[in-house]
Amino acid sequence: MDKNFPEEFTQVIKFDPPLYKQRYQFVKDLVEKYKPKKVADLGCADCSLLWMLKFCSCIEVLAGLDICANVMKEKMHTLSPLPADYLQPSERSLTVTLHHGSVAHKDPCMLGFDLVTCIELIEHLEESELKKFPEVVFGFMAPSIVVISTPNSEFNPLLPRVMSYRHPDHKFEWSQAEFQSWALETARCYDYSVEFTGVGHPPTGMEKVGFCTQIGVFVRKYPQTAQPVLSEKPTEAVYKTVFKAVYPSLKDGKYLQNAVISEVIFTAQIIKHRLMPKPEESGDDPERKSKLQPSMDSSSDYLGKLVVEKSMEPFVRGNKLCIPLTTIFAFPKVNRLCGTFEKLCKLIAGKVTLSTDGSAVMVSIEQENEEN
Amino acid sequence: QQLQQLQQLHVPPAVSEEPGGHGRLRGGDTVLQERRPEGLQVSSGLQDLSLRDRGGRRRDFHDLGVNTRQAMVHVQESKTGFSGRMVKLSTNHFRLTSRPQWALYQYHVGYSPEMEARRLRSALLFQHEETIGKTHAFDGSILFLPKKLESRVTELFSRTRNGEDVKITVTLTNELPPTSPTCLQFYNIIFRRLLKMLNLQQIGRNYYNPSDPVSIPNHRLMVWLGFTSSILQYEENIMLCADVSHKVLRGETVLDTMHSIHSQVGEERFRDACAKELIGLIVLTKYNNRTYRIDDIDWDNNPKGTFRKSDGSEMSFVEYYKKQYNIEISDWMQPVLISQMKRRRGNIQGSVALIPELCSLTGLTDKMRSDFNMMKDLAIHTRLPPEQRQRELGRLLNYIQKDDNVQKELRNWGLSFDYKSVSFTGRVVQGEKIYQSGAMFDYNPQFADWTKETRGVPLIRAVPLDSWLLIYTRRNYDVANTLLQSLFKVTPAMGIRMSKPSMIEVDDRTETYLRVLQQRVTPDTNIVFCILSSSRKDKYDAIKKYLCTDCPIPSQCVLARTLSKPQTIMTVATKIALQMNCKMGGELWSVEIPLKQVMIVGIDCYHDTVSGKQSIAGFVASLNQPVTRWFSRCVVQSRGQELVDGIKACLQTALRNWSKWNKCLPSRIFVYRDGVGDGQLNTLVNYEVPQFLDCLKSIGTDYSPRLTVIVVKKRVGARFFAEVGGGFKNPPPGTVVDTVVTRPEWYDFFIVSQTVKNGCVAPTHYNVVYDTSQLKPDHVQRLTYKLCHMYYNWSGIIRVPAPCQYAHKLAFLVGQSIHREPNLVLSDRLYYL
Hints:
The structure holds two protein chains of two kinds.
Chain A: H1 19-34, E1 38-42, H2 48-53, E2 61-66, H3 69-75, H4 83-87, E3 95-100, E4 115-119, H5 127-141, E5 145-151, H6 176-190, E6 192-199, E7 213-220, E8 240-246, H7 253-275, H8 286-298, H9 301-306, E9 315-317, E10 320-324, H10 325-329, H11 332-338, H12 341-348, E11 360-364
Parallel strand pairs in A: 1-2, 1-4, 2-3, 4-5
Antiparallel strand pairs in A: 3-8, 5-7, 6-7, 9-10, 10-11
Chain B: H1 2-7, H2 30-33, H3 42-52, E1 85-91, E2 93-98, E3 104-112, H4 118-125, H5 129-132, E4 137-138, E5 142-145, E6 153-159, E7 165-176, H6 181-197, E8 201-203, E9 206-216, E10 221-233, E11 238-253, H7 254-278, E12 282-285, E13 291-293, E14 296-298, E15 306-308, E16 314-316, H8 317-325, E17 336-341, E18 350-354, E19 359-362, H9 366-369, H10 372-382, H11 386-402, H12 404-413, E20 415-417, E21 423-428, E22 434-436, E23 439-441, E24 468-473, H13 477-494, E25 502-506, H14 510-520, E26 527-532, H15 537-550, E27 555-559, H16 560-563, H17 569-583, E28 598-607, E29 614-622, E30 630-638, H18 644-662, E31 668-673, H19 681-699, E32 706-713, E33 720-724, E34 727-729, E35 735-737, E36 747-752, E37 764-771, H20 777-787, H21 802-818
């Protein structure tokens, strides 16, 4: 069920970019416009659309559903977090889940979504499934927006190698009128509005055949109820979860704490090196000295902050350099991570060596013991 | 279409157009789309399969199929030694078991009409899962199944999306026994699948667990724990060799690093410093799971620059990353990193442009490695003692054992593992006696060090310091005097006669040093001693270059800081005195070498990672019977040039020198060859060894010495643990392993020769690839171990035979500082120590 296969590949009419990409771009534009937090892709196949959507920074929950587990599994690893996601956890949280199941069945895991996409899905449904589909998607899931795309059969004569349907697995292909009447009826029934558009422009002079892919965008007319209405009996889980990835995020306390601790210690090290450079760096090396000077200015924003307030100045006590937490909090990165000073104190408590009154970070300034 | 894309310039990652382009697929399907000639060899098919496996460069990392033992009659029966006491060892190898009569079935899959895309080929084939089964491995042309299909040729019919009917012919081409090389590669692929199923992240060739990182905020480092694994045919069993691996990642981007370099060195030296620090490093990109090596920095380009996409249109980087990954590049002035794509087959060559801001650094730079504190902080996490290492390994095995999906996959293939590591007995050969001017010493075998024992004992050959220079800066005047006093204290006991040096004060400029050297060094100068005030490499390089090439005089450079601590100055002075003595042609100690008329050769290579242009082979050969004097040469070769010709010339001059010293030619030659990469063994055996033989032949028709060539490998996956009182300890120095975990097709053995203070000791692997010595394996092992005692810069046993370490030192000095062959006047001294 590889819906991405470029059906127009060998045709006279060639879409650029390929039609499947135009469909995905359409969804992406929609996401940019409405900024949904939770998005589900029904009939997600090899997860290509989900993969594109994971880069959309507004999305926090992504779900995919397909009737064929193998197709999903083939590339589902592309939805896993990357090493870099662990190295620099992002601000937003993101969970990606893949379910194995049918759009003809209801499963509570599909509740609460803002956007549900059904790209080139419905034409693969058997009559019985298609009958249940509106109730599942519009009645049960009831997201704010539903996008449905399907081939426009009126365009088929322009695709020379297409005899009956564009794909052997298609159960039907609708004309514009057929799709629109089905869509309008469905919208009316579940209190949605619908607008029609499409991708894949017809050749000039043949505009009346319409887009190669027709698209209906459904918008729910009634406001979101706090708790999704469970019209009938509470539904039991019928889908099988085949994949779940939780992305590292600064919203997760563990990652936030790690990031803050690491930033605080690193900042303290920067301050220490600025204040007391290693002896060899300031040695009697004329070549070096001259070149070191100007560059210090270019990055003096750190030090500039230090002299603002007297109480913020680091001081030496014994063999330790004490750097007031207020100084460290003034560093933009630390500031951005913690937000408030209290949170900074809370996050580093017990993890970073502090002075007895807890107001300063202590850094050892023992001459480093170097053996060679 | 994609092929074109790869040949052109380059765009960000080659799979840009393919969502989900993952890992090291490197252009994904491209290679597989190329039509293979029909009737191809069995094994080449599997190489394609392994290529799909990430990190798979088309190279046989395990040197499978290089069968050198069969040509050596004297080790056909047995290659094991006998001396020493037994020691109970366990290792990090785990037996792979398969059910009886297990076989892997290999099929060729043909399509009519031809289908080009691999994905389509797979999709069409797996429409018939009820026939083929759920368990399979398919690379687009070759199919592996754990079961035999009913008939030899199976015809299947599928229909494409376009309604085209396709006939698929699945033909059995091979029934592979568990031990076939193809099967071994297959096991490795399957095992990698398992690691992926365990949600480990692949970086490079290994797999790491991202969920539990160790962070070292002081240095902005992060360490991921992971595993290396390989499955191979060992002496009696097919085994999984698994080891704990640590990946050092850095919590900063290349752009962050550039900023901090800028603040350290300033504008003027900024670009040079960036090149030095960054080129050669491996980066991870933010948007896909690939690693790239930084080969160059394009300072004339920036994110606003454009590249040509596969469809021929131009696009800027800023636009591309926004569109493709929704990433906003914040710094539009940053340069662009260039990474060359290496791909041997299909002539696909090109480079990828990367944005510094989107690249995270991995690994350590040379600068970081030389940061003592950083390495110390790292070592706490990465140097696991034996007990802990075994425990971590146990955890991996436990994951494998507990994971249902993994177990199911293994079951489907009919495979399983022994979850307890293999144990066996090794031998600890006796320690050597150290001879020094008539005195004889034993050393404590536990420490493998005789610094204390030989203190105050005259050296075998002490070279007098009659005329020498001591150069220092004004600031180090006191340091210079302290050093001098200390040297006067320690040298008499060694038997070194020392006169007062010419003390020369200089200002700390490279030109001044060079001017002083030009004016003051005379042909009578024994050695030049420079006290440097900083570890600035350019000064060191300039001094070394001048004194190794234009004006060949031994030299000793020491950092003032090293001499500044009163409590260690005597120890330091002792070491320096010994080192200077060696550099001037002195000899320190010896061990008993029972073989007569033997010449020992050591070879190692240095690859310049920064410019990537030069490789240097260091070559050393013993000159005398007690192997205390060494002749040396080196070969500087540019990229792509073969090493062997240069080495042939080295061997010729070494033989000439040996005969000058001994008034005859050696009757035995041992070559210890280090620096042979994974997968290069075949080249070594087929090209380098014949060159040695050729060279010997060219000396004279009546000259046919016995030749032994031993490949030395320090980086091996095997680890040994001595079972002591129910716990695990490092095996003692002198532990020899030549059974169970060695390879049946090789004459090979392991020796643990050194000791380590913390962490696990790494055994060194010795592979005798050519041997007409007729010596028993025991003797070859003993000789090898003896040579590990002969490195004069360390009064203890080292990890490799001394000639390898000397060759390494020489190649390193030339590669790092001198860049051309040093003057041959120095060739009979250890000036490169």
